[in-house]
């Protein structure tokens, strides 16, 4: 049962030798100023300091990059089960690196942060009085905080408001590499203070981190919830600050647009260049935090990961961004991953195969999953039913198929060991959307810990989202296009992102062993530096040209704003040039099959009625409308946009 009052602390505290208190919103109370407001004020002050040192960086650029660095760091922390902590010094270092500023400015930026905190905090005098009473009675009093600030900076803040002597020692999650919310910080405190859980009393405002977690460890806890009015006021302040910041940014950018592209390569440079570069910045920020423990490997998945890695490595070089993390390319596809899940008989593989082979036969599934053609009896020519797959594999004919699947999976397991070794944290990097590869590999190799970062995450399949906590869409994370979020426009035409990053090589279907004992695939050598993914891909070639010329991350972020607006216009209201620039040609259905599908199918000579009916089945509906109905295009595209808006609102209302 929650204990929520100072009165609980006046009762006799028997057998207690250590009192610990949370810092923010407990020992030090927040005023109504939000974190967003404090960041804006601090970065504005930092911009003035930079100007004095000869660096001209607009405050808005500092704010945007700081927020990107902070959001990415916490996302990487949470994807790693929350182990460790995000350190403010690391966030600032990443911010400075992206902006091309010297790292020796970190301490001065930290000083500004502390000055901002001193203006936004006040002393909890009532709690301090109680702590002094216990301190006078001979109990040891410590502060325990989940924060990005180091212990010496927390001590400075506490002494500023309460004077020295109130707290015997400060424990910061940033220093200890462990947090209260997962119990690790409490364990570290118990060990350092040489007390048992029953001898410790903890006080704090967070219901989970300050009450349920310590109580579950046998520590007595008192919950002092933050003031509700202050919480609402802080949220309102944050919303107002963000709204003002967005308006100012839009006004400062004016109506500037990207230069008019002349061909597909220039479209790739001016439009996709900034978008890809920003995506790569997000990958770098994520990787920096994920590698804080020094035991992570990033694996770029064939095929889309090949193009992503080319852009990523070039951006690191262009901006001189440091990254001490093992990086490799991995021969994987949904088919390869499905084999691993099939060997463990995971329900996940039945979901994927059921969706991919709807309308096909058991024999079609066998030929795709196995290594070759099989002489299968009539029963295998029946319509594929996922619920009967395991039964069919247990037959004598199925055992031959299963043996080939097992052989291929053993080869992949060896390949995984070759590229990842005994790394505890395996980060897959791919295009998106649903994260099937992540889901299937996690089911097939339960002893490994996979997580996936990709361009976008969307449950377009309508299947389970149990794996989503391990899948991050660094640019987009939503299931439907929203006119209010420009980046979500890629959900209207996702194939353009896949086509942008994929080299002109086949998807991985078969693995084998070469003379040196290395595992190779029928997709060819996809290792970094062995293949130019931009060959025959003018959009990627142009994007790489942009990245090669980048000198500041601030330029990337600013250019990306304009590029996204231009891409949205090209996708939702395409001109004849846009149809050519964004045309991808036939797309492979993959999964061991050679079938192809047109992005915009049908014949231009078809009757108008058939054209209208076919629009719904097109992969790029707006492109089909622009191609087939040039005169009706404005009305039809406006109607289609309205449908998307209504659908988005309806989904929100029914959550």
What features would you describe in this structure?
It is a single chain. This protein is of the alpha/beta class and 655 residues long. It is 51% helix and 11% strand. β8 (296-301), α13 (304-319) and β9 form a beta-alpha-beta unit. The two termini are 31 Å apart.
Q: How does the overall form come out from the CA principal axes?
A: globular
Overall mean confidence score, pLDDT? 88
User: How many strands in all?
Assistant: 16
- Counted by DSSP, the helix tally is 26
- The portion of residues forming beta strands comes to 5-15%
Rg over alpha carbons: 28 Å
* Strand adjacency order, main sheet: 5-4-1-6-7
Described by its quaternary structure, the protein is single chain
Low-confidence stretches: none
Helix share, percent: 40-55%
Give the N-terminus to C-terminus distance in angstroms.
Answer: 31 Å
Which class best fits the helix and strand makeup? alpha/beta
How is the main sheet built?
Answer: 5 strands, parallel
């Amino acid at each position: 049962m929650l204990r929520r009052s100072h009165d609980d602390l006046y009762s006799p505290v028997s057998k207690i030798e250590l009192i610990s208190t949370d810092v923010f919103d407990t020992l030090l109370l927040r005023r109504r100023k939000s974190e967003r407001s404090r960041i804006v004020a601090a970065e504005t002050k930092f911009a003035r300091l930079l100007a004095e040192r000869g660096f001209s960086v607009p405050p808005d650029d500092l704010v945007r990059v700081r927020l990107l660095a902070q959001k990415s760091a916490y996302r990487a922390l949470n994807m790693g089960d929350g182990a460790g902590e995000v350190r403010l010094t690391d966030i600032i270092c990443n911010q400075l690196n992206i902006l091309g500023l010297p790292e020796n400015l970190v301490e001065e930026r930290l000083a500004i942060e502390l000055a901002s905190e001193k203006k936004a905090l006040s002393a909890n005098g009532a709690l301090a009085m109680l702590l002094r009473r216990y301190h006078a009675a001979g109990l040891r009093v410590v502060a325990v905080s989940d924060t990005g600030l180091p212990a010496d900076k927390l001590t400075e803040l506490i002494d500023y408001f309460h004077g020295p002597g109130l707290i015997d020692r400060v424990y910061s999650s940033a220093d200890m590499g462990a947090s209260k919310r997962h119990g690790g910080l409490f364990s570290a405190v118990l060990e350092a203070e040489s007390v048992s859980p029953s001898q410790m009393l903890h006080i704090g405002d967070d219901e989970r981190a300050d009450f349920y977690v310590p109580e579950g460890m046998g520590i007595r806890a008192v919950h002092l919830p933050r003031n509700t009015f202050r919480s609402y006021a802080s949220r309102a302040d944050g919303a107002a600050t963000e709204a003002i910041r967005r308006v100012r940014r839009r006004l400062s950018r004016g109506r500037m647009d990207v230069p008019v592209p002349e061909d597909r390569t220039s479209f790739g440079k001016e439009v996709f260049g900034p978008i890809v570069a920003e995506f790569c910045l997000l990958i770098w920020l994520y990787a920096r935090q994920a590698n804080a423990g020094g035991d992570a490997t990033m694996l770029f998945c064939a095929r889309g990961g090949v193009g992503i890695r080319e852009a990523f490595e070039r951006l690191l070089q262009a901006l001189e961004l440091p990254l001490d993390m093992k990086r490799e390319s991995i021969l994987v596809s949904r088919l390869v991953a499905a084999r691993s899940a099939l060997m463990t008989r995971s329900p996940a593989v039945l979901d994927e195969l059921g969706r991919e082979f709807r309308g096909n036969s058991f024999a079609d599934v066998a030929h795709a999953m196995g290594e070759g053609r099989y002489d299968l009896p009539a029963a295998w020519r029946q319509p594929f039913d996922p619920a009967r797959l395991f039964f069919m594999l247990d037959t004598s004919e199925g055992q031959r198929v299963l043996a080939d699947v097992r052989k291929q999976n053993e080869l992949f397991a060896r390949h995984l060991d070759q590229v990842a070794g005994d790394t505890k944290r395996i980060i897959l990097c791919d295009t998106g959307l649903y994260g099937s590869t992540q889901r299937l590999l996690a089911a097939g190799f339960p002893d490994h810990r996979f997580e996936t970062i990709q361009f976008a995450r969307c449950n377009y399949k309508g299947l389970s989202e149990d794996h989503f906590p391990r899948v991050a869409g660094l640019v987009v994370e939503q299931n439907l296009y929203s006119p209010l979020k420009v980046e979500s426009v890629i959900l209207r035409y996702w194939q353009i992102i896949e086509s942008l990053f994929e080299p002109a090589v086949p998807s991985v279907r078969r693995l084998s062993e070469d003379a040196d004992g290395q595992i190779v695939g029928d997709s060819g050598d996809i290792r970094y530096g062995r293949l130019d993914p931009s060959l025959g891909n003018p959009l990627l070639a142009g994007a790489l040209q942009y990245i090669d010329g980048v000198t500041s991350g601030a330029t990337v972020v600013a250019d990306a704003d304009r590029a996204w607006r231009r891409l949205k216009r090209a996708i939702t209201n395409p001109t004849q040039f846009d149809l050519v620039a964004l045309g991808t040609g036939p797309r492979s259905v993959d999964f061991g099959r050679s079938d192809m599908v047109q992005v915009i199918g049908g014949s231009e000579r078809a009757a108008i009625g058939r054209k209208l009916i076919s629009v719904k089945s097109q992969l790029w509906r707006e492109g089909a409308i622009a191609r087939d109905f040039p005169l009706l295009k404005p009305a039809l595209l406006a109607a289609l946009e309205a449908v998307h808006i209504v659908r988005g609102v309806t989904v929100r209302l029914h959550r």
